[in-house]
Design a protein that fits this description.
The chain is 23% helix and 33% strand. The chain is elongated.
Length: 359
């Protein structure tokens, strides 16, 4: 188990700067997930922690010790890749035992570690098979098992489930959560899968173009995003954004005029001058379709998914579009007239600079 501290981590590939000074403290036993759009630097940051990438600036501390110049194998970390990277000519047992053999551990010690990890991962019956005789999920378990036997201070995962089909991903996700509870080891995990991030993380780190946009517990990020980027990145379908203009502000309440002419009351603590441009954010599941003084809209598409129905609507008199998660048992039709609104506490307000204006 270990703390990981990153201060001012910078990295460039040639002239292209990909990490612009990352500061992050990861607590002992914490499960931290890096998310962000493709190319934002998630994997590079993980590989830098691991020691597979040199950094141009900053410090990496593991349990208070600076490891910038410590080779990967001596950092006390174990990395699990998307590609599994198993040795094809070795059995599962040999794959899992390999690092311990290299480290000169005794045979009995190796045997105990491999069998214990195999038991944890429920792959005891597969120990004599070779990787090609395993399913994708089983291979991924072996890759994790190979990391577990080394008893690393920190596990690093780079999109470990993305080669698996949907149902296996769910199963492995639940197993990873269980593994984290059992081992209580620090885990750092890169994914572009929002559900993995939301369900596995103690804290999510949202990266964008080599910078941290926000760090926080999953629901904190979901319900109180610091800015438009984080608000739009977490959640599927994404948060709806409507552009508007402050008409008046009084004692923490503002009236916002929207494209199309409707007006909406919102909560904003700090004074806002009339004429200021804002963006209102509303999640699809928070929108009601029969609001008093709501925003008039017309449905142009309906998607029935069984557990929910998504309505795609256009705000009348504008080009603004809104997605609503609606009652799956009600009747919805293209062309239907809606009056959109949301509870005051569910309407997010973002200022001209894209930052959240707290209620
Ligand atoms: N070996 C390399 N040489 C040059 N550029 C690289 C190299 N590896 C990564 N990059 C660039 O660095 C940036 C960050 O890449 P990185 O792989 O960290 O992104 P990512 O957030 O993990 O993306 P993805 O979700 O697509 O895996 C990208 O612009 C990428 O093109």
């Amino acid at each position: 188990m270990a703390q990981v501290q990153l201060t001012g981590i910078r990295k460039s590939y040639g002239a292209q700067a990909v990490l612009h000074g990352i500061d992050l403290d990861i607590a002992d036993g914490e499960f931290v997930v890096f998310v962000g759009p493709s190319g934002c630097g998630k994997s590079t940051l993980l590989r830098a922690i691991c020691g597979l990438e040199d950094i141009a600036g900053g410090d990496i501390l593991i349990d208070g010790t600076r490891v910038n110049d410590v080779p990967p194998a001596q950092r006390g970390l174990a990395m699990v890749f998307q590609s599994y990277a198993l040795y094809p000519h070795m059995t599962v047992y040999e794959n899992m035992a390999f690092a311990l053999k290299l480290a000169g551990k005794r045979k009995a010690q190796i045997d105990e570690a491999v069998r214990k990890a195999a038991h944890t991962l429920q792959i005891e019956a597969l120990l004599e098979r070779r990787p090609k005789e395993l399913s994708g999920g089983q291979r991924q378990r072996v890759a994790i098992g190979r990391a577990i036997v080394r008893q690393p201070a920190v596990f690093l995962f780079d999109e470990p489930l993305s080669n698996l089909d949907a149902s296996l991903r769910v199963q492995m996700r639940i197993e990873l959560a269980r593994l984290h509870r059992t081992l209580a080891t620090t885990m750092i995990y890169v994914t572009h899968d929002q559900v993995e991030a939301m369900t596995l993380a103690d804290r999510i780190v949202v990266l964008r173009a080599g910078r941290i946009e926000q760090v926080g517990a999953p629901l904190e990020l979901y319900h109180r995003p610091d800015n438009l980027f984080v608000a739009g990145f977490l959640g599927a379908p994404p948060m709806n954004f409507l552009r508007g203009e402050i008409r008046q502000w009084n004692a923490g309440q503002a009236v916002v005029a929207l494209a199309g002419g409707a007006q909406l009351m919102v909560s904003v603590a700090a004074h806002m001058a009339p004429g200021a441009h804002v963006t209102l954010g509303m999640r699809p599941e928070h929108i009601v379709t029969d609001a008093v003084d709501g925003i008039p809209a017309t449905v142009f598409a309906v998607e029935r998914l069984g557990e929910g129905t998504y309505l795609y609507a256009t705000v009348i008199g504008s080009t603004e579009q809104v997605i609503v998660r609606a009652d799956p048992d009600a009747t919805w039709d293209v062309g239907q007239y809606l009056l959109l609104g949301a509870p005051l506490a569910r309407i997010h307000v973002f200022g001209e600079n894209g930052r959240r204006c707290p209620p």
